[in-house]
Model the fold of this input.
Amino acid sequence: MPITDLKPLFGDDFKQSPLVIAGPCSAENEAQVMDAANELSAAGIKVFRAGVWKPRTKPGGFEGIGTPALEWLAKVKKQTGMLVATEVATERHVHEALHAGVDAIWIGARTAANPFAVQEIANVLATLPEERRDSLTVLVKNPVNPDLELWIGALERIYGSGIRRLGAIHRGFSSYGKHVYRNPPKWRIPIELHRRLPQLPVICDPSHIGGRRELIGSLAQQALDMNFNGLIIESHCNPDNALSDKEQQITPDVLKFIVHTLVVHKTNSSTESLGLLRQHIDRIDTELIELLAKRMRVSRDIGRYKKEHAMPVVQAGRYNDLMQQRVAEAERLDLSAEFMRNILSVIHEESVRQQLEITSENNQQ
Ligand code: PEP
Ligand code: MN
Done:
C-alpha cells in the first residue's frame, strides 16, 4: 500500500523546527510528571511524552502505572498547553489513551515487530470517528530487529486504518554483545526508509539509540545532519532516581542546552535529498572497503593454509566456479555480468598477489 497523501504531524497549524518531543521514559507519579512538564514547557517544548504502559524485557521491573497515569497526561495538556503522547501496545491501551484525550500515540519497538499487535491497533483506529482519526498523530518506532520491510509493513497497517498524521521513529536496533550504543543506529535503514517513503516524517530517538546521557547531544546533531524531521528525547527532573531508563534520561535543563546548541540546517529540499543520497553512498563505500579488507584477511589465511599443505596458490577450477556463481548472483540483483566479472577479476588478482606474498615470506624463513 503506497503511503502517499500524508498530513502534517500534530495538526495543520503545528509548527516547531526542529520538532522536539520530550518527557520522561515513564510516568511515575503525578508530581514527577507535572514537574517535568512544567520545566519542559518553559524550555519551549511543545509535545510531551511519557510511557504509561512499559514493555519490560524481564518481569519484576517497573511496568508503568497504567490507566491512572493517563489523568496526569490530561492535566499536563490542560495546565501547560503542550500536546501529549504515550505508547500503546494493545486495543485497550488505544481506547484508554484516546479516552484520556492524548494527541499522539506511538507504537513501541517490540510491538512494531509483531504484525498481529500492529494490526489490532490499526483495527481500533479504523473504527474511530473521522474527526478523531484526522486529528490523531501516530508514530511507529522501528521494530527491534533491523528489518525495514517489517517497519514499512507496520506503517502501512496504520496508514491503512485511515491515519494520515503518520510518522516513524528511529530508535536503533537490538543487538547481542557490547556496543558503544544501547541500540546501534544502523543509519542506512532510516535513510533507506526516507528514500522509499520521502513524504513520511522520520523522528530520531537518540535516548534509546545511545542509552547513555553523554551520547544524546551528538546523536541528536547527527540526526539533524542527516535531515531527520525531529527528535524524541527522554527527560526527567531527577534522572538518577528514574524508575526506568535512568542512564539515558537528561534533565530539562540539559535538554534545553542541547536543543539550543543544535545546528539546524535550512536547505531546500532538492539539496537535502542529494545530500542524503551522498551520505548514503559514503556509508556504503565505507562498508565496501571494510568488506574488502575482511575478504583479503581471509584470503591471506587461505594462503597460509595452502602453503602449509603445499598447495598451489591459484586453482583454476575453484576460480571458475566462484566466478560463475557470483556472476549469477549479481545478475539476480540486476548487476551486469560484465561489471561483476571485472570486479571479481580485480579482487581475485589482488587475492593471488597477497597469497603469493605469504608464500614468499615463508620461503625466506
Ligand atoms: C520508550 O520510548 O520509552 C520505549 C519503550 O521505547 P522503545 O519501544 O523504543 O524501546
Ligand atoms: Mn525509555
Notes: The pocket of manganese (II) ion (ligand 2) is lined by residues 25, 234, 244-245 (CB under 6 Å).
